[in-house]
Amino acid sequence: MADEAKAKGNAAFSSGDFNAAVTHFTEAINLAPTNHVLYSNRSAAYASLNKYSEALADAKKTVEVKPDWGKGYSRLGAAHVGLGHYGDAISAYKRGLEIDPNNEALKSGLADAQAGAARSRAGTSPMNPFGDAFSGPEMWAKLTADPSTRAFLQQPDFVKMMQEIQTNPSNLNLYLKDQRVMQALGVLLNVKLRGGPAGAEDEEIPESPPAPKQPEPRKEEKKSEPEPMEVSEEESEAKKRKAEAIKEKEAGNAAYKKKDFDTAIQHYTKAMELDDEDISYIMNRAATYLEMGQLEDCIKDCDKAVERGRELRADYKMIAKALTRKGTALVKMAKGSKDFEPAIEMFQKALTEHRNPETLKKLNDAEKAKKELEQQEYFDPKLADEEREKGNEYFKQQKYPEAIKHYSESLRRNPKDPKAYSNRAACYTKLGAMPEGLKDAEKCIELDPTFAKGYTRKGAVQFFMKEYEKALETYQEGLKHDASNQELLDGVRRCVQQINKASRGDLSPDELKERQAKGMQDPEIQNILQDPVMRQVLTDFQENPKAAQEHTKNPMVMNKIQKLVSAGIVQLR
Q1: Which parts of the chain are TPR repeats (predicted)?
Q2: Is the confidence at residue 123, as pLDDT, over 50?
Q3: 547 vs 304: which has the higher pLDDT
């Protein structure tokens, strides 16, 4: 478990999510509190967040747990440097070098600490002129966003160098000869030291004003700034074209916001011609076609964006957006239920790339619309009546499963037909499927409260389930709509007979036991028995005839008593 948490912390650290790294390393420490590497890793994460006090505490714990490990003193020295404690940092690095004399990180750290101490004594700023550029998760976000550095993040040695520079910006001096580091420095400082996509963006059309640009990192020691690197004529031309592409995109965005879609299309197309390594241009054009209702063109652009994005190994979120946009266009084109299937497939593919809540909602909406259209397309009252009649024929032949099949088909053709629900409820009752029969009978009543058959079906199910009180209520409710209905009147008579049978104590021991067991499962009976007032009433009926006589004058009390009698719980003598 500790190794798993450690691995998550390392992954978060590598991606620049240092807060998450701290969380995972803390979890690992709780599981393995004597593991010195975990404290070392968390110290590095804290240092990356500029929380040098916490980094120092973890570094001290590291060397306490493992005093013969050189890297622990490197963490200790780095934390002291971050706090400006150069004397303590120098001591820490020297102690580390006594243990590991060939450790380059310790040597470099010692040199930096000594230089910092010298600057401090001279009254100059100890801060590395490029330190701000490497701070926080913004560094990784910038490197990921820029096409010229995105591929470097797949190279472990480059990631390791950037992590070391982020932990201690002074380590930059160790890697100035590495062209990738210089390229990354240029991106982070917004200064292009080599050819590359100047300011290329991965975002789509902005839906809100862009955030104000952050001020460039303060350069305190100009002499430490690396010299601009020479670029070839070809690289210079590429840089120029990319800059022009960005301008075209910005002009397209402005036109899009004004709903001048034709102009926006022109600018996005020009941007695509200038720079084919940024799929945001074609994505924006696809969005514009979508707004214009040119859905076929939108779909073609989305396909191009996915294909080119795969080639460039673009951010999976951009691929997901392209697939989602294609799905949206397909939904707009849908005329029948079958037309929603390719749209649903696109949304599902998009979610495998990136589980975006907006895409998930679009998927749910498409599935719902498909289902509703299927019902509309299948709706046919005439065919529904034919299927119901077929069911009636099978019912007369006592072929109830076959009858249910046709009644079900009738309801698919016309889900608002109370007769089909009533007939299917009768079939279920004949087959002893009481819960299904009750459900259909209730649906029948819901669709047509005046249809007497619904009440006879429901009452019959309740009667067979020996819920005589409920059945009586159902039959009485039906008589409100059809007072002369003989089936309802017969139902009332049968229920009263059963209820009176319990009142007279005419039930056999087995019948009484069965009715009591069923009654105790009824929530209404349980509530009556748990009611303190009713408990006292029942006690009075047994021990206090005078009080019991008063209770009989209360209709609510007697109604509850009658329910207990019907359930076989109470017998009146």
Answers
A1: 2-35, 36-69, 70-103, 245-278, 384-417, 418-451, 452-485
A2: no
A3: 304
Tell me how far apart the alpha carbons of residues 446 and 552 are, in angstroms, rounded to a whole number. Answer: 36
Kindly tell me if the per-residue pLDDT of 201 is higher than 50.
Answer: no
DSSP category for residue 222: G
Give the residue among 409, 345, 344, 349 at the shortest CA–CA distance from 379.
Answer: 409
pLDDT digits (tens, 9 = 90+) for 394-419: 999 999 999 999 999 999 999 999 99
Q: What distance in Å separates the CA atoms of residue 488 and residue 499, rounded to the nearest whole number?
A: 17
The reported pLDDT for the residue numbered 344 is 95
Alpha-carbon distances of 344 from 296, 350, 377, rounded to whole Å: 17, 10, 19
197, 146 Cβ separation under 8 angstroms: yes
- Letter for the amino acid at 273? E
| Residue 279 or 132, more confident | 279
- Name the residue type at position 245: A
Distances (CA, A) of 124 to 127, 211, 438: 9, 34, 87
At what angle are helices 316-333 and 357-378 packed, to 10 degrees? 20
Mean pLDDT (the chain) is 83
Taking phi first (over 0 means left), then psi (-120 to 50 degrees means alpha), and beta for anything else, what does residue 537 get? alpha
Q: Specify whether the CB–CB gap between 170 and 112 falls below 8 A.
A: yes
Q: Label each residue of 253-297 as H, E or C.
A: HHHHHCCCHHHHHHHHHHHHHHCCCCCHHHHHHHHHHHHHCCHHH
Give me the pLDDT at residue 8, please. Answer: 85
End-to-end CA distance of the chain: 70
Instruction: Kindly list the distances between the CA atom of residue 281 and the CA atoms of 253, 268, 285, 304, 349, in Å, as whole numbers in the listed order.
Output: 10, 6, 6, 11, 22
Amino acid at position 98, single letter? E
Residue 4 is predicted with a pLDDT of 83
Q: Running DSSP on this structure, what letter comes out for residue 127?
A: S
Q: Which residues contact 286 (CB under 8 A, 6 or more apart)?
A: 297, 298, 301, 302, 305, 322, 325
| Inter-CA distances, 31 with 56, 104, 193, 295, Å | 21, 32, 46, 55
Q: Cα–Cα distance between 87 and 116 in angstroms, integer?
A: 10
In sequence order, the 6+-apart residues with CB closer than 8 A to the CB of 62 are 36, 39, 40, 43, 69, 72, 75, 76
| Rounded Cα gap, residues 151 and 314, in angstroms | 10
Question: Would you call 458 exposed, middle or buried from its count of C-beta atoms within 10 A (0-12, 13-18, 19+)?
Answer: buried
Q: Residues 261, 284: contact at Cβ < 8 Å?
A: no
Q: For 203-232, what is each residue's pLDDT tens digit?
A: 344 333 333 334 444 444 333 333 333 445
CB 25 within 8 Å of CB 145: no
d(CA 410, CA 389): 9
Say what the pLDDT of residue 396 is. Answer: 95
Is residue 43 within 8 A of residue 59, CB to CB? The reply is yes
User: Which ranges of 32-146 would DSSP assign to H, the alpha helix?
Assistant: 36-48, 52-65, 70-82, 86-99, 104-122, 138-145
Separation between Cα atoms, residue 517 and residue 370, nearest integer Å: 47
Structure confidence by residue, pLDDT tens digits, 460-476: 999 998 888 899 999 99
Percent helix, percent strand, percent coil in the chain, to nearest 5: 75, 0, 25
Residues 27, 326: Cα–Cα separation, whole Å: 42
In this predicted structure, what is the pLDDT of residue 136?
A: 58
